[in-house]
């Protein structure tokens, strides 16, 4: 089966899951159906996100005990990369099927993986993390949930902590597109609020075939 056909099947499963599940619960329904139907999860590449890797490379080594939160960890590709680099990682996803797979991959690292609705984070996560990683999660959320996530992210940072976001991008005048929905710059920049500042914003075409427009944004709590 071609990659495009795999993605189309995944979109069909995601659409059915969203129609029959409440809120973000459709993720678990989707992962279960993807596994039983042998459909490749379209955002699971089996390797860490290359744009995150580039960003981490630029940061250099991390101090022991530096805490990272991997939001929407899926099967844990980015979680493993963070663990390898010495972060103390909390990996979270609303899908218990995805978290179970992630847990099986991170035994060698300082990683905890748990099922959690990031739109309703535990009170103990407030101002807990030095790094919050949001890769391709907002873009699979409908606008109300997306706006909620934008408001939640800054609350999770310790002073001096950073948020890194990678997502598909579009101009406000462009069509909304199909799932996963590209975001406009102002949606991402909404993370900057009060003492959380936008540090950098990249708008670029990646090297996929065909190339896709991406945003990579970094925020810092001062």
Q: Mind explaining what this structure looks like?
A:
This protein has 222 residues and is α/β, with parallel strands linked by helices. The chain has two domains: 1-42; 43-221, Vaccinia Virus protein VP39 (Rossmann fold, 3-Layer(aba) Sandwich), CATH 3.40.50.150. Helix content is 32%, strand content 24%. The protein has helices spanning 3-20, 26-36, 50-59, 77-84, 96-103, 143-152, 185-189; strands at 67-71, 88-93, 111-115, 129-135, 157-168, 196-205, 213-221. The protein has a seven-stranded mixed beta sheet with strand order 3-2-1-4-5-7-6. Helix 1 (3-20) crosses helix 2. The chain is globular and about 45 Å long.
CATH class (first level) name of the largest domain: Alpha Beta
What is the approximate shape? globular
- Based on secondary structure, the structural category is alpha/beta
- What's the CATH topology name of the largest domain? Rossmann fold
Radius of gyration based on Cα positions: 17 Å
Q: Give the averaged pLDDT, no decimals.
A: 90
Helical coverage, percent range? 25-40%
The CATH architecture designation of the largest domain is: 3-Layer(aba) Sandwich
End-to-end gap:
49 Å
**Uncertain residue ranges:** none
Count of helical regions: 7
Characterize the main sheet: 7 strands, mixed
Write out the CATH superfamily name of the largest domain: Vaccinia Virus protein VP39
Which series of helices and strands comes N to C?
A: HHHEHEHEEHEHEE
Number of strands: 7
Strand content: 15-25%
| Major β-sheet strand ordering | 3-2-1-4-5-7-6
Number of domains: 2
